[in-house]
Structures are given as structure tokens and as C-alpha cells.
Amino acid sequence: MPLRQQIQVKDNKEGPRFALVLLSFAILIFNEELPGDPTRYTPLLLACETGKAESAQVLIEKGANLGIKTPASDSALHLAVQAGAAPITNLLLRKGMEVNLTNRADETPLHVAALHNKAALVSLLVNAGAKVNAVTKELVTPLHVASQRGNNEVAQELLHHKASVNAKDRQSKSPLHYASEKGDKTMVEMLLNANADPNAQDKEKRTPLHAAAERGHLSVVRVLLATKGRLGVKDMDGCTPMHYAAIKGNTEIVKLLLTSGKNKNIDDRNIWRKTALHIAAEYGHSDLINLLLSYGAAINALDNSKDTPLHCACKAGVFVVVARGRRAPVLQGIQTSLWRL
Questions:
Q1: Chain centroid to CA 3: how far?
Q2: CA nearest 148: which of 107, 109, 191, 105?
Q3: pTM (global) more than 0.70
Q4: Is the pLDDT of residue 322 over 50?
């Protein structure tokens, strides 16, 4: 049986013994790529990737080089963590393997644990000296990864080990931005309970509330508002969370934003001086138009082009707004602007 196949089969009493016999006759293969193996892995790397603890132990005891990496620059420790192989991970650490080795993307084994939801290995790595706030080339921490992937148990472990909850990556996004984008209410609550800033702004000056409102995550919007997420924060385009909810025609989120802010942000303008009503009209969101008007949105507000919401609707070809005017009381208000065309 070829060594590759022997390592890949389930470990049993014969497995390590057979590997030992082969290795006794072919000592040089310890640190050589397996013949015909497209991954170009050494036997130890393969044993780590497949989580074969006894085979890995035999190889290490017989002198396998712990420093060899895969073509992607993953170490044996990266592979063992990805496989969730605690015995191999522990063995490698006991043999003195560097716990903060990075691969081509500057990911440490702790990043890999966060990515592949290996919560049981987080404490093992941190207690062995893993940097809980290690960053990749994109300044991504393990907590960013766990938050983006929705790996709640990993995030909980990282926070227990004092991971920086407000760390920002190269896009200036915090873990809370990613959890809010994903709509992961449990993760959002966990991060907020760990003192995440609900009003942190990314590179485009968007807050987690912008992200949740844009993607229609009502429950997350509610949680962020309950923890003093600010309604009127504007991004680089001058858009508030309400502008983004208006683009999607999300009446529930807009209503929640209106009631939470006592309507004071209803006529906020972006850099084109468009209100949420302008946007709702452009996209033909009739239900949202009705809602905004019922809350007192400025019907004749002018944008940079001197257009009212009705002008915007007509320019966008949303003629249904005008056509329904006489029969829909709220839309009759819009028709009063028709005489200005």
C-alpha cells in the first residue's frame, strides 16, 4: 500500500506500524513530496491535513521536518488546526512549533481556527502564545474572521481571551460591521455586550446601522438602535441608514428608524440633496412613499437638480405613482406637484 494511501486510511493498530516499517526503509521520504501527489505535500503535511494523529506522531518521532510548508505556505500547524485535530495540534506545539507562523496571506493558525469554526482549539493556541489580535495583510484579526463567518463559539472564545472588539481592517471595518452585514443578531449582541462601538465608521464612513439597514436585517437594526446606534450618521455620499432602507423599499426598517428618531431625520439630504422620499419615488416604492408622507416627509423638497420627488418618479419612468393619484389619498399630495411640471 502506498504511503499516501496508508496515511489517509483511518488510524488503527496496523496503520502507524505499517508506516513505521515503510519509513524504516525509506528515511528520506520524511521531508520529500509524495511521488505522484498533486498537492506536493510531504507525509507529515498530509497526516496533519487529514487529522491522522498516530501517523503524524510516528513521522515526527522519526525526524520529519516541522518547518516544511505547503505551496500555499501553510504550515503543519495550519493544516492540523483546519482539520480540527487537537491531538496533532498539541503534539506540534509540544515539539516547539512556532504558534504564530503565517501563510501567504499572513494568516496565523488562530485565523484558520476562526475561519473553520474550531472553537475547541482557540484556547489551546492562545495559551501556547498565539497573538489573539494578529493581523493579515488586510489587517484582518481572527475576530473579524469569526464575525464575518458567523462562528459564534469562536468569537466567544476570542473575546474571552481579550480580543480587540473594535479592531479595524484595511477597509476600516470592525467585527460589528461584518456581523451587521451578515444579519447575525446573536453575533451582534455578543459584540455589543463586549463594548463594540455601534457607531464605528468604515472607510466609506458607513456604520453597522448603515449595513444592516441596506441589507434589510430588521432584527439587527432594532438591536443597534437599542444600544444607541445613531440614525443621522452620514456616509461619504451623505446617505443615512434611512436612505439605504429607502433604496430597498423596506417599509418596516424605515418605520422603525422614523419612530426611533421621532421623525427628525425624515428629510435628511445626501450629497445630491435627495431625501428618502426622492429615493422611494425614483424606485417606485409606493408603500414606502405612503409611509413617508404619512409621517410628514417634505413633498416638495428640491434636490440638486431642482427636482421634487414627483419629478424623480417621472424621470425614472415610475408613472404608476402619478396614475394612481386620484384614488390613493396619500398620493393625491404628490399629484399637487404635477402642476409644476
A1: 40
A2: 191
A3: yes
A4: no
